[in-house]
Design a protein that fits this description.
The protein is mostly helical. 79% of the residues lie in helices and 0% in strands. The protein has helices spanning 2-28, 32-44, 48-61, 68-81, 85-98, 105-118, 128-143, 150-177, 181-194, 201-217, 221-241, 248-266. The chain is rod-shaped and about 95 Å long.
Length: 268
């Protein structure tokens, strides 16, 4: 058994060395048909790392030929296989421009948009790529309204918008935690304006009441009256939207205290 195991290991090493040797010969050689055949075989086997240098060379050789479209298509997909989504998106988009009558045009347009979606980072990072992905997916749907990828695109856009929504909410909440109550109130308002159906609406509206109250409490005398009035206003809106909220008791406390403070200020 031990001899068999050793034999298998040696055989595997020989085959691997032979395979590498053959690959290097093909890569350095001038047989472009063989390069193409090998590159496609490697791509189909998932060995995109070795397929890429071959396709890279073939891109120049087969440019402006009938096979150029096939090479370009595989080249873009090889970058996608390697998870280099920036380059993959670039080449998929370039494919649609170079081959406007290709039956693969819609597929490549979708893949370009998909790559931008895959480049979208976590919600707490720079949202530039997230916004770009939404724009690219929307552009695809505008260009191909009958595509069978429309539902997929809508689902991805919802996912991307959820990231932007979460970022807006977390940023406003960060202002609140830092006791920058004026900035918090403004940011909470922006969140509700941009995402009126946000899942965070109840908490956001409650924190607006509390932030308005704390802002008033920590304001100079000339600003207190206006800001306590804003607390009452934000409480009433909150109570109308969420009459059974678990936050209602605390919110009402800020409302009641604000009423008393307003009465004091008006009697001064």
């Amino acid at each position: 058994m031990q001899r068999i195991a050793i034999y298998i290991l040696v055989l595997g090493a020989v085959l691997t060395f032979s395979s590498c040797s053959d690959y290097n010969k093909i890569l350095k050689g001038n047989d472009y048909e063989l390069k193409y055949k090998t590159a496609v075989e490697l791509y189909n086997e998932g060995d995109c790392y070795r397929a890429l240098p071959l396709f890279d060379e073939l891109m120049t050789y087969y440019r402006m030929t009938e096979k150029g479209e096939d090479v370009y298509y595989y080249y873009a997909n090889t970058h996608y296989c390697l998870k280099d989504y920036y380059l993959a998106s670039y080449y998929f988009k370039r494919f649609t421009k170079h081959f406007p009558y290709s039956p693969r045009k819609e597929e490549c347009a979708f893949m370009s948009a998909l790559c931008t979606k895959k480049n979208s980072p976590a919600y707490n990072l720079d949202p530039t790529d997230t916004r770009k992905a939404i724009d690219e997916l929307q552009l695809f749907m505008d260009q191909y309204p009958e595509s069978d990828k429309i539902d997929t695109c809508n689902a991805m856009i919802d996912e991307l918008r959820a990231k932007l929504e979460r970022k807006s909410y977390e940023q406003a909440k960060l202002y609140y935690k830092m006791e920058k109550y004026k900035s918090a109130v403004i940011s909470f308002e922006v969140t509700l304006e941009k995402y009126p159906d946000t899942e965070y609406r109840e908490e956001v509206m409650y924190l607006m009441v509390k932030s308005n109250y704390l802002l008033a409490e920590n304001s100079i005398e000339t600003k207190k009256l206006e800001r306590y009035q804003e607390t009452i206003k934000s409480y009433r809106i909150f109570a109308d939207y969420f009459p059974d909220s678990g936050y209602l008791k605390n919110a009402k406390h800020y409302h009641d205290v604000s009423l008393k403070e307003i009465e004091k200020l008006n009697n001064q």
